[in-house]
Specification:
The chain is of the alpha+beta class and 311 residues long. Helices cover 27% and strands 22% of the residues.
Length: 311
Amino acid sequence: MVSEKIYVKPKSVEQAIKIASQYLGSFRYLAGGTDVIVNKYQGNEEANCLIDITEIEELKKVSIDGDYLKIGSLIKLDDLKKHESIVKYIPTLIQAAHEVASPILRKTATIGGNILCENRCSFYNQSEWWREAVGYCLKCDGEICIATGGKKNCFSKFVSDTAPVLIALNARLEIIDTNGESTIALEDIYSGDGMNPRKLSATALIRNIQIPIGEKQICIFKKLRPREAVDFTSLTTAVSQSEIGRVRIVLGGVDPKPIVVEGKTTDDKNALITSAVKKARIVDNDVYSRQYRKEMISVYLQRSFDELKWE
């Protein structure tokens, strides 16, 4: 653990990973900074070394490679709509990106950063003095989950708006770290543990997000939150349907990880909805009650199926 404050700006992925390996346990990659910097001000982020990756050009490319559309992890959310291939093949991703935060933040926040944004909880994402006054929770060196009273599990919620859409469309990530390069399904990086919500290695960087475009897919996105701008999600739903009848339901905001339910257009839609509701581990750590968010899962999924014209 380093004590001095360090800020570096590598020009390549390899250089960034090399620096990260020198400061294991005390570094953070910095892209848009809309998550990391806020957490540092709140005292929820203690890394002394910031590795600014914004000048790594290979992470800013959008291309089509065979049956995959590849989106570099540093593409800003507001810039997704500027790429014709994204508009053509995955317009729902642009809709989801538009629901993130505010217009100013979307001009800074990146697609990779949104996929990796920290899990949130109304008892954790507060100032240092607030957390001390209410009592520290499991996520900040306390002994219990304040939301549930339990001593073992943290249920801070997964809040990415873009990841549910990407998962619904069977996206995968190209990742590079000290062990080399690998490709992994997006949903597989999430652990379900609110304290350590991702299963990526310490030095891992997302090179790009890969979305299959060989088979036509339709995706319906919905988000519940108190205000149309700024607020993180209380519930996100994404439902995709492929041209050969595959269906994917993805939920965000109601569990420490995305909830995924797979099916076919020949399945009973009510059974798929029931399965999604049962999988969600919702606790009272949000401005909306646990019961209301649970009920809204069924409402949003039913509306999504209606838009997909399911009988």
